[in-house]
Amino acid sequence: MCQLNNIGMLQFENLDKDAWDRAIQPIFLKNEETGFNNTINAMMDHIWDAFYTGQKRLARFPVALLTGQDYDLEFSGTPPNTMRFKLDARTGGTKIRIPYPVAGSFQVGKSAPGKGEYTRVDNNKWSDEEKSQGSLVKKAGGCGENRFVGIKNFLEFWIEPGCDLKIYPKDSIQAKVRMDWTMDEFFADGGTTRFVDRLASSLGIDSFRVKVVSIYSGSVVVDFAIEKEEPAVVKDADGVVVVQTAEQIAAAEAASLEALKAVKSVLVVQASAGTLAIGAPVMGLEAKNDSGAAELLAGDPIPAAPSKNPDVSMLVPTSGALEFAYAWIAMLALAVNLF
Fold it and tell me: 42 and 50 in contact (C-beta within 8 Å)?
């Protein structure tokens, strides 16, 4: 009889639009300390048309684990942008780390039981000592605690039994700036705290919207995100929240995104004119465009950050149909060699 009370079942699901036909498996759940490595495959094909498979399958993955331990979740393809996680267990919590091929801007939402709506759990604050967002505390009741570590490019979060989490992209400006400074000078002059305050002041926005992702030398490169301002909650004269229509919510969201684009325009203008007041001369400014590619917006090209994570998106087929075609080509080649 099994005497363990910390056996759990982690379930996660790809919620992207291409979830039914993009292959991200096999997926590996690893624990470096214990040597645990659970290889997870996809569900069987959801549709068959006579002899032919429909190449569509549910991208939901259940996996057994022991709670109270830390795990890496590695995909055989680019991790989905939007995912949902839930842990079923009697006791204990688990830290999950997901490596990404490039830096991103993600947020973690936590759902109240039976509600279906996710409330954002803010990422840990920057730690000058760790040179990254602060490590997870992993305390009871802290489900959803999270951080993204740039350069190493991984997202990690804490999940507890019964907790329902959703990972999804932030609406933000993802940029990096290169300053004519040394690392010693940067941290002696206030480090990330002063950088955030100066950047926010120069752009005329609230400082809490600026999030530092990573810092690396060459001279000093700061990778950061500027999040969009959330639409204001509308209240009546008595302070009661006014329920808005879908059209009103959509209009407020569109206005927030337009305001974010305006902030990006000001950022580019100031960086180009040399008026971006962040403590040192700006040598270069890059930002991700709508397709997710880095684009030089001002000054000279910025050296890429060192990363240990390979671009796994180039290692596997991006859709079920392409995977099926590769399999047929391989079988035909084998048949030619045999006969």
Answer: no
